[in-house]
């Protein structure tokens, strides 16, 4: 269970980016965070793995507060939190399987990581995850040769090999064509169910959020204005969230 309580963050004095954000997410839940540009979605996501130091509140994963963790504890927390990025963050000149194996770096000494020392078991797991994301025939291709949708599936396999409890996806489909976006959302939903994950994605595509997410969190000007089952996202809520009529997005 992930519990966020009264999260606060200001980048500049008297200009709060997040005010009193609280929500709970159960394992096996695919969550979309929606809201206009500048609402605070990225700030929430980055606070969850402490890439951004928030100002106050609690972020409790399975009963332990990430915010009070020391350096070593934070390293262990971060192993449990995979990241999927809009621009994939792959090493383009390396092969697909090498990029997936990079997800194991949090478990290794710096030296073992530098020399790319991976066990047979890790390599086999990387292959089996590539199969799971539909890329078993691409293991030895360079990432630079892949399409955007394929790169994102490599990014997802890389996050899974960490054995995460939580996957944070920052605009995972923003750079993809509609068909690839659909595939990636389907994959995230399927993996969330299969691995009993907490998967949280920042999204601008409301129709995708409604179609694939179990739970939707709506953020407006740093405040939480909606936190319900995706089915309950209504036209009224969207008008409040975006300050305008964007209900055609739901069609
Ligand atoms: N590094 C920073 N320094 C100062 N202000 C920042 C910084 N990062 C974000 N902000 C401000 O914090 C607020 C929330 O930004 P955030 O990036 O979290 O919004 P967002 O909902 O993710 O937006 P988008 O959908 O455009 O990515 C905005 O007012 C933004 O200008």
TrEMBL record:
<dbReference type="Pfam" id="PF00005">
    <property type="entry name" value="ABC_tran"/>
</dbReference>
<dbReference type="InterPro" id="IPR012693">
    <property type="entry name" value="ABC_transpr_PhnC"/>
</dbReference>
<dbReference type="GO" id="GO:0005524">
    <property type="term" value="F:ATP binding"/>
</dbReference>
<protein>
    <submittedName>
        <fullName>Phosphonate ABC transporter ATP-binding protein</fullName>
    </submittedName>
</protein>
<keyword id="KW-1278">Translocase</keyword>
<keyword id="KW-0918">Phosphonate transport</keyword>
<dbReference type="GO" id="GO:0016020">
    <property type="term" value="C:membrane"/>
</dbReference>
<dbReference type="InterPro" id="IPR003439">
    <property type="entry name" value="ABC_transporter-like_ATP-bd"/>
</dbReference>
<feature type="domain" description="ABC transporter">
    <location>
        <begin position="2"/>
        <end position="246"/>
    </location>
</feature>
<dbReference type="InterPro" id="IPR050086">
    <property type="entry name" value="MetN_ABC_transporter-like"/>
</dbReference>
<keyword id="KW-0472">Membrane</keyword>
<keyword id="KW-0547">Nucleotide-binding</keyword>
<dbReference type="InterPro" id="IPR017871">
    <property type="entry name" value="ABC_transporter-like_CS"/>
</dbReference>
<dbReference type="GO" id="GO:0016887">
    <property type="term" value="F:ATP hydrolysis activity"/>
</dbReference>
<dbReference type="InterPro" id="IPR003593">
    <property type="entry name" value="AAA+_ATPase"/>
</dbReference>
<keyword id="KW-0813">Transport</keyword>
<keyword id="KW-1003">Cell membrane</keyword>
<keyword id="KW-0067">ATP-binding</keyword>
<dbReference type="InterPro" id="IPR027417">
    <property type="entry name" value="P-loop_NTPase"/>
</dbReference>
<dbReference type="GO" id="GO:0015416">
    <property type="term" value="F:ABC-type phosphonate transporter activity"/>
</dbReference>
